[in-house]
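ENTRY TYPE: protein
WANTED: fold as tokens:
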Amino acid sequence: MTLIQSYLFRQIGLPVLAAVGALCGIGLLSQSLDQLEVIVERGQSVWVMAKLTLLALPQLVAVILPIGVFVGALIALTRLQREQELTAMSAGGLSRWRMIRPAARIALIAAALGLLIGVLIQPMAQREARAQAFAVRTDLAALLVEEGRFVQGPNGLTVYVQQVEQNGLLKNLFVYLEDGDRVTTWDAAEARFSRIDGEPYLTMRGGSWQRFSNNGVLEYLSFDGYNFPLARFTETDERIRYKPADLYLTQLFNPSPATLDRVGSRGELAAEAHSRLAGPLYALMAMALALNAIVGGAFSRTGYALRIAKASGLFLALRIAGYGLVAASTWNPWLNLLQYLLPLAATALAMRMLFRVPRSRRLPPVLARLKTRTA
């Protein structure tokens, strides 16, 4: 790149990066508010909430990237045109193609990033998020412990904890287990959930154990430490349920019978796969529409509000139409082709309009013929 093109690359790239970052920040804030349930109702730590929020970021970026490119490019190009920097570059002999080449490179970088996210990063993050959410939902500590309340667990287990500290330490614990006609109780001053040889245990400190024997005699035992096994209470037939957004492209294009049975139909999976491949093309479309709105027409002293409004409305309509095609492709596989044609056709049309000669610069037919004869 020449010095001028490097300057344009920075002037357009930084607002695009800032717009994507700002939109991602808003999206993360919304996601974190949704994940507050993990702390409030499930008793998980802030780190678990942060992890679930960050794992949702790749899918969020894939959706926001074209919007960020469009908004950032409009901001940068409007400033460059308002300060007549683009006009000065054109007057200095810089062709239109060389002028928009840095913007085209930014759009290609955004499209490549979107493709990488859709093909590899998003399914990895989504699968990890599903696994983390499943672990939270089936976390025995969260299911059995609720401060100041008797919580009934599976297989006749009831647990009461007077106080739960921030480090996970349980204060004044009471455990009631009903196994047929036999009832056993434990109480402890302190307890903590732990794992021994990979198996879950409730480690109690400073407590006692009591139950009635078969002949009606009360059996009592005090202990300094006792490991209460929890494996029999953690058995579950529930499995992680994936969605099409959690699968890799190979799984979407060639799903197994189990995937078709648990995740979705073949048409739904194919529509998701083509959507991930076609989604990055909207970054190219966004940049082409932004360039056409600011650079495509003649210089305007009154501003570019009307052009920006038209380009924004067109971009919004095309993006919504793209989502509609994804839904329609579930039932009609031939519509998957339109997922690619829509952004490509819009990009090609915007670029064609960008390089058209403005009407004010065209010579009248008589002068054009006279110029041809003179030549």
Remarks:
- Residues 176 and 185 are 5 Å apart (CA to CA).
